[in-house]
Amino acid sequence: MMSDTILDVRDLRTHVESDRGTVRAVDGVSFSVARGRTVGIVGESGCGKTMTALSIMGLLPRPHARVVGGQILFNGRDLTGLPARELQEIRGRDIAMIFQDPMTSLNPTLTVGTQISETLRRHEGLSKAKARTRAADLLGEVGIPEPARRLDDYPFQFSGGMRQRVMIAIAISCNPQLLVADEPTTALDVTVQARILDLLHDLRDQHGMGLVLITHDMGVVADIADDTIVMYAGQIVERADVHELFARPEHPYTRALLGAMPSLHGDGGRSGRLAAIPGMPPSLLEPPAGCRFAARCSYAHLADGCADGDSELRELRPGHWVRTAHPVSALTEVA
Amino acid sequence: MSTPATAPLLEVTALTKTFGGRRRGGEEGVKAVDGVSLTVGRGETLGLVGESGSGKSTTGYCILRLLDATSGTIRFDGEDITRLSGRPLRGLRRRMQVIFQDPLAAHNPRMSVGDIIAEPMVVHGVGSPAKRAAEARRLLDLVGLPSSAMERRPREFSGGQCQRISIARALALKPDLIICDEPVSALDVSVQAQVLNLLKDLQDELGLAYLFIAHDLAVVRSVSDRIAVMQRGRIVESGPAEQMYDAPQHEYTQQLLTSAPVADPTEMRRRRRERRATVAS
User: Fold this and answer.
1) Model pLDDT for residues B260-277, shown as the tens digit of each residue
2) For residues A93 and A174, is the Cβ–Cβ distance under 8 A?
3) How many C-beta neighbours within 10 Å does residue A193 have?
4) Nearest beta carbon to residue A194 from set B158, B200, B259
5) String of DSSP letters for B47-91
6) Contacts of A307 (CB under 8 A, 6+ apart)
7) Is A302 helix (H, G, I), strand (E, B) or coil?
8) What are the counts of helices (DSSP H) followed by strands (DSSP E) for chain A?
9) Are A276 and B197 in contact (CB under 8 A)?
10) Exposed/middle/buried for A315, CB within 10 Å: 0-12, 13-18, 19+?
11) Candidate from A191, A216, A260 with C-beta closest to B51
12) 8 Å CB contact between B225 and B216
């Protein structure tokens, strides 16, 4: 099993310098991704999920943001200390990334054929003609009809969903071992979203890639992830197999987040009330020393010092890790 | 003529909005809204759902008279407002307000929150400066913000708090109808629930009517009495909320409902297998 691990992130710490001081955007994050597996990272704005992805990719906005601690082991090689040139060789070829907004990721003044060929010529050293043929194959593979004819079209001639397919074609063009997708379907309509997630799922299987999918949407995680990581205030608060996590959420935050989602059936219509989480996440300039969710937690009233105690991830059940003094199951057993 | 007592607060009939095209050249233009009819009763919420480009926001802007309808009629409280202009239109604006999607872009960053909330009262000549300030404080309290927010600027507030400020401003002229255009889609789930609950509480307290425009079916369900589903400029299905969700009649509504992701891995995997089977057959 160990040899299947492509990515091993250990105690990652990423800081961002702001006018008001140092923001601890990622504060001790560890996880690994195996070949052919999908890790879903879910959390709300500012939880550090995108900063985690950008750290892995070496795409942090410099000079404000930088990795200050931990390791990012890609096939056993630490990426954090790597010179820019070596990282560029890996990025795009072995690790690829797709972003939320395909329109801003594509160059509007170049045809999509040129943009796909660019990666192939750079990383694979293909000739112009061969790159063009391969580009058409890739467009076909990501489900764009009449691919050869669409090579000479510009990004604006594609719909949002089709543009994201173009981005995915570029991402998989060099057969990467790892694909990092940051909110890849957030800008898309739900009917298109389902098809794009299907495509990512299939490509992962066909190419044997590891996939890291970052999203704010619990539904998207439920759809595509094998392993699920919930982040809050720069830390992982819960990590488990996707079925285990949704069947038995243990962190009060995960539980509250699921409870705050409006639903399509059952309770929660006009006459009901949504279970909102009061307050806001803490500032990461000086995060609380103990539990970072305490100020919003419905169990903090137990006043047993849980808010101040050290709050480490611990394995509650095999493979199910949680960072809280009060796993939900323990409380319901008592009650 | 219907009497005001029986007429719905808002009644839109065969509304059409075309962009581009030339009358003489015979070019068709784009029909963003194509024969939409809907009603909103007093104190009621109509949820208008659809995907991007379905015409739901354009419908809202025509009702607000921010866009001129190409054809059709819009009646507000029994009065035809389709071609209203000048002073009567300004009078209408007091009774019909709007909340937009992006809470940060909706506010002038240089104004204090107190001035932002009082501005509609200034524009419409309501009250003295002292009375307006007192009213702004009362509205802040109503939307769950401390009165210390009065002197601060929008950027000091989170997205959810900015949307509370938008709501306070929309309430400043005591409107009968608020058009909410994707009011929570830029917010995180936990904050989204806070704002949706606030909108419902205010409706119960003040008897407001909402036209609630959004793409997220679950969000729309949580606030709406009735639902209208839009696709390519037309309403394809409408009815009481529970009926629409539990027994959707139109194929497009069914498709939207089965595409909306739910927090259930087993169900999501079942759907993927089903999609595969449909593609394969």
Assistant:
1) 999 999 999 999 999 888
2) yes
3) 23
4) B259
5) EEE--TTSSHHHHHHHHTTSS--SEEEEEETTEE-TT--HHHHHH
6) A288, A290, A291, A294, A297, A300
7) helix
8) 12, 12
9) yes
10) exposed
11) A191
12) no
Return phi, psi of residue A327, to 5°: -60, 140
Contact A219 B263 (CB under 8 A): yes
Checking phi first, is residue B86 left (phi over 0); if not, alpha (psi -120 to 50) or beta?
left
Residue with tokens 């059936």: A265
Confidence (pLDDT) at A333: 58
Q: What type of residue is B77?
A: D
With a cut of 80, say whether residue A335 has pLDDT above it: no
Q: CA angle, B268 as apex, B267 and B271 as ends, to 5°? A: 85
Yes or no: say if B257 and B267 are a contact pair by the CB < 8 Å rule: no
pLDDT in the model for residue A3 = 57
* Number of Cβ atoms within 10 Å of the Cβ of B42: 14
SS3 B279: helix
Cα A240 from Cα A7, distance rounded (Å): 17
Return the closest-CA partner of residue B162 out of B111, B203, B224, B97: B111
What tokens appear for B192 in the block? Answer: 């989204």
Least confident among A194-208, A320-334, B151-165: A320-334
Residue B44 dihedral angles phi and psi, to the nearest 5°: -110, 155
E runs forming strands in chain B:
10-19, 30-40, 45-49, 71-76, 79-80, 96-99, 177-181, 209-214, 226-231, 234-240
Three-class SS state of B98: strand
Minimal Cα distance from A246: which residue of B? B264
Predicted pLDDT of residue B103: 81
Calculated CA dihedral for residues A231, A237, A242, A245, nearest 10 degrees: -130
Place of tokens 């057969």: A175
Determine whether the interchain pair A216/B189 forms a contact, defined as Cβ–Cβ distance below 8 Å: yes
Is the C-alpha dihedral spanning B207, B208, B209, B211 positive or negative? negative
Best to test chain B binding among A195, A254, A261 (most B CBs inside 10 Å):
A261
Q: What interface predicted TM-score (ipTM) does this complex get? A: 0.90
C-alpha to C-alpha distance for A147 and A149, rounded to whole angstroms: 5
Residues in Cβ contact with B244 at an 8 Å cutoff, skipping those fewer than 6 apart: B227, B229, B237, B238, B253
Mutation to test the A interface, candidates B221, B243, B268, B273, most A Cβ within 10 Å:
B268
Question: A6 vs A54, A67, A89, A172, B12, CA distance in Å?
Answer: 17, 20, 17, 16, 58
DSSP line for A143-156? T-SSHHHHTT--GG
Is the CB of residue B200 less than 8 Å from the CB of residue B180?
no
pTM of the model: 0.91
Please write the tens of the pLDDT for every residue from B28-79: 789 999 999 999 999 999 999 999 999 999 999 999 999 999 999 999 999 9
d(CA A220, CA A44): 14
d(C-alpha B254, C-alpha B268), whole Å: 16
